[in-house]
Specification:
single chain, 0% strand, mainly alpha, 262 residues
């Protein structure tokens, strides 16, 4: 358990670092990122999360279930649905505001616009932290102790976290915040990844039979983020080849990482 927590902290610590590095782009860009680059970033993040949901979460969920003598589809489908329901609940309750939008989502609140901008990205980082944490917990539970697949997932999530950090710090700069404050908000949006990564490792260690369900749960939560937010934002209401190519590139890179290192 201690080893799994240490690895999960390392993996999610890396993804948090990449978010922070992305947020640091506010010190180098005087103006906002162009729409096309933003579409590529969003599409890339979507592609990474789709591939990670399949290869790093759903397939291992089915394999773990089969080893327990259960039908592989049962926990995969059940956990997937629960993950979607969890993110839908958070999406409808937690006040948050997506960059470029005027109308906040979630419950009505008097929170500042900047706080809700940060929460929009923070909300999406929760399933990513869970996915990386569960990947390391799964590796620790398997007798072969294979951490390569978990490291591949952390690398893929980390790569797509870079533009996510920039996606929160740069709009905050446009809102009139100082560069330092914009960076701080952008970096802090990724702090939930180590937090939820360790929490799911602790849960998986104490209720090991739930591992297939937890893996699928993280996959469902990630896919909700992809379909609800990332892909629509990557196309910004119009047909966009660059957004589509971003999705394909992210999917391809995450697939190669998982298969080559897994």
């Amino acid at each position: 358990m201690t080893q799994a927590i240490s690895w999960a902290l390392s993996g999610t610590g890396f993804t948090f670092l990449m978010t922070s590095l992305g947020a640091a782009m506010v010190f180098f860009f005087k103006t906002k990122i162009s729409d096309n680059i933003q579409r590529i970033f969003l599409g890339f993040a979507a592609g990474v999360m789709i591939a990670a949901s399949v290869w790093s979460l759903l397939i291992p969920s089915m394999e773990e279930a089969a080893q327990m003598g259960l039908p592989g589809w049962l926990p995969a489908a059940g956990g997937f649905i629960l993950g979607i329901a969890f993110l839908m609940l958070l999406d409808s309750v937690l006040p948050h505001l997506h960059p470029g939008m005027q109308q906040a989502e979630g419950l009505s609140t008097s929170w500042k616009r900047t706080t809700m901008l940060m929460l929009a990205v923070t909300l999406h980082n929760i399933p990513e932290g869970m996915a990386v944490g569960l990947a390391f917990a799964l590796a620790a539970q398997n007798s072969r102790g294979d951490y390569a697949a978990a490291m591949a997932l952390a690398l893929g999530i980390g790569i797509q976290n870079f533009p996510e950090g920039a996606a929160i710090s740069l709009p905050l700069r446009q809102e009139g915040f100082s560069r330092r404050k914009s960076f701080a908000y952008g970096a802090l949006s990724g702090i939930v990844e180590p937090l939820f990564g360790v929490l799911v490792v602790l849960a998986a260690g104490s209720i090991q039979p739930m591992m297939p369900w937890l893996l699928a749960f993280a996959a469902g939560a990630m896919m909700y983020v992809v379909v609800e937010e990332l892909i629509p934002e990557a196309h910004l209401g119009e047909h966009s080849n660059v957004g589509t190519l971003g999705v394909m590139a992210g999917f391809l890179i995450m697939m190669v990482l998982d298969v080559a290192l897994g």
